[in-house]
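pinging the channel bc i need a second pair of eyes. not urgent but kinda urgent?? the chain im working w is below, pasted from the shared doc
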Amino acid sequence: MPTNESLVDALGSEPRRPDAFRELMRRGPEAVPDIRRGLAHPVPKVREECCRLLDQLLVPEAVDDLIAMVDDPDPGVRVAALHALSCDRCKPDADACRPDRAVIEPCAIRILHDDPDPQVRARAVELVARWVHTDPQALAALVRARDEDPSPVVRKKAGWYTPGGPIHRRTAPKPVRPSRA
């Protein structure tokens, strides 16, 4: 039976990756320490796959590890880390593993404006959008991306989350109706 460490190494091999990924998922929390160590692997694809694994196996102690990965030199790793930090659908207990807003929001806004890769900026839109209805800075960052980003993909995606956009309308807080006495 392969060790968790050897399975993490196998994530860098195209033919072995799918089986290694499935086996690490099957092992679940027991594999998380080795997956976290895989975030420092020299092969970018291994780091990216470790972010994808942590997206579904996230534990509170790994959140800071993922936050550090948004500055990885490889854009695929940055995209996977941003997804893991922004997506609640993939996690069984998203509330327990939500990153600290005070730490991640400024980082996400910085990435949205400054990352050289348009796919990374497009993924940052989703993370910044978590606070579009509650924080004027998040709203301003998305409006700026909608109006000024050089990538049409980023501009379009940011537009979905800004006032008038379909996701902005769908996620807007519902007005409180006065109670009938």
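so The longest helix spans residues 44-57. and The chain is about 60% helix and 0% strand. — does that match what u expected or am i reading it wrong
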